[in-house]
Specification:
By secondary structure, the chain is α/β, with parallel strands linked by helices. It is about 35% helix and about 15% strand. The protein contains twelve helices and 15 strands. A seven-stranded parallel beta sheet has the order 3-2-1-4-5-9-13, with helices on both faces. Strands 7-6-8 form a three-stranded antiparallel beta sheet, with no helix packed on it. Strands 10-12-14 form a three-stranded mixed beta sheet. α4 runs parallel beside α6. Bound molecules: uridine-diphosphate-N-acetylglucosamine. The site of uridine-diphosphate-N-acetylglucosamine has 23 residues, from β10, α7 and β11. Uridine-diphosphate-N-acetylglucosamine (UD1) binds next to β10, α7 and β11.
Length: about 375
């Protein structure tokens, strides 16, 4: 692809800014649209944002501003979203407005301005699967239902086979797994994905949904208590406080380095084979939350160990990690960053960072609302 004009919504954020750097490096003209939300950007405009991008400060709820932002662009990355699973369960209207209505506004703006981008890429999420895929020794591959309130109260953390109630073993989740959202955040991500793909089909705009798994890496907002678990644990340890681990810490996730996310983002522009479909973008490797806390504590030389709370956070699923074979086949996506190398890179960046720990307040808030119990 030649030199393009590319819009990144949420381009001042963690994934957006890394993507912007890579695109600028390839000679593209990048426009960033971002509201610089205080929870994510307490100091305002982040120092890391490339000075070579054109910046428009605006919210996804602002159709007028978005209509300016989409003018004359060849490619759009729609990465802007509010991202806290726990927070989405009490800021329901805000999350739905920023994510669902925000995406509707973006599509409306494209239509109203007669823009016809050559590619539209939306940041979807593994959270839309709900529970990941499992294997039952009797029934084969199964998709267990969401864990019941009674089950998690009894601290029976593992899902069971939906047919025979036997114990099941988590396996890599494929894109074909039925979606089963368990948080308002997930629901809004599903809306984003489906709206963009439907819009693309309707108006013949090549559109791709990248279902990101758990992203970590440099620039993840350290003082946002609703961000991803790696940044939260890092911030706790930097403040000499124990990471608070929900459930028993043995839940599995797929942690993918932001540099691999950038790889997938760039490949998505080049390939026509991904048009109209969703793709898992993860590392393909499961790791437990407890292990993450231990690795980080060791790498940071912290003298505190994690605290296993035995509590359940509303909206959480037990295990999910990616089957990335479709992205490998269709995009040529191959994760390059080994988790331990990625953590080491993160730890070296943390050395230059300040982190204000707001996690205790955030968890107290969730507890008052009965969302952590
Ligand atoms: C995360 C992202 C979501 C993204 C999805 C897929 C955030 C806030 N969430 O959701 O945007 O779409 O990955 O990429 O960035 N945990 C603790 N202690 C904590 C925080 C979390 O034990 O202080 C546990 C949670 O209970 C959960 C696991 O860590 O079991 C992962 O949590 P989190 O980082 O919030 O990720 P997801 O909910 O998987």
């Amino acid at each position: 692809m030649g030199r393009n004009k590319i819009l990144i919504t949420g381009g001042a954020g963690f994934v957006g800014s890394h993507t912007a750097d890579a695109l600028v490096g390839q000679g593209h003209q990048v426009r960033v649209y971002d509201n610089l939300r205080e929870q994510v950007h307490p100091a305002g405009m982040p120092a890391y944002l490339s000075t070579e991008v054109e910046f428009i400060q605006g919210d996804m709820r602002d159709l007028g501003k978005l209509s300016e932002a989409v003018q004359d662009v060849d490619v759009i990355y729609h990465l802007a979203a509010a991202v806290g699973v726990g927070q989405s369960m009490y800021q329901i209207a805000d999350y739905t407005a920023a994510n669902t209505l925000g995406t509707a506004n973006l599509l409306q703006a494209i239509l109203n301005t007669n823009s016809h981008p050559e590619k539209l890429i939306v940041a979807s999420s593994m959270s839309i699967y709900g529970e990941g895929e499992y294997s039952c020794s009797e029934c084969g591959e199964v998709a267990p239902a969401r864990r019941s309130a009674q089950q998690v109260q009894q601290k029976k953390w593992e899902p069971v086979c939906p047919y025979c109630s036997r114990a099941v073993r988590p396996v890599a989740t494929r894109e074909t797994k039925p979606l089963n959202c368990s948080s308002i955040y997930a629901l809004s991500k599903k809306d984003q994905e489906e709206m963009v793909l439907l819009f693309g089909r309707t108006y013949q705009i090549p559109a791709v949904a990248l279902r990101y798994f758990n992203i970590y890496g440099t620039r993840q907002a350290l003082s946002n208590p609703y961000t991803g678990v790696v940044a939260i644990f890092a911030s706790r340890l930097m403040n000499r406080k124990p990471p608070l681990v929900f459930e028993d810490g043995l839940q599995l996730r797929d942690f993918v380095n932001v540099r691999d996310i950038v790889q997938a983002n760039l490949l998505a522009i080049e390939s026509a084979d991904a048009d109209g479909i969703p793709l898992n973008i993860g590392s393909g490797q499961p790791i437990s939350i407890r292990e993450i806390a231990a690795e980080l504590a060791q790498m940071l030389g912290a003298d505190v160990s994690c605290q296993i709370t035995g509590k359940y956070r509303a909206g959480d699923i037990r295990h999910c990690f990616a089957d990335i074979s479709r992205a490998t086949r269709v995009l040529g996506y191959r994760p390059q960053v080994d988790f331990r190398d990625g953590l080491a890179e993160l730890v070296s960046w943390l050395g230059s960072q300040q982190a204000e720990d707001r996690v205790d307040d955030a968890i107290e808030r969730l507890e008052v609302l009965g969302l952590v119990a």
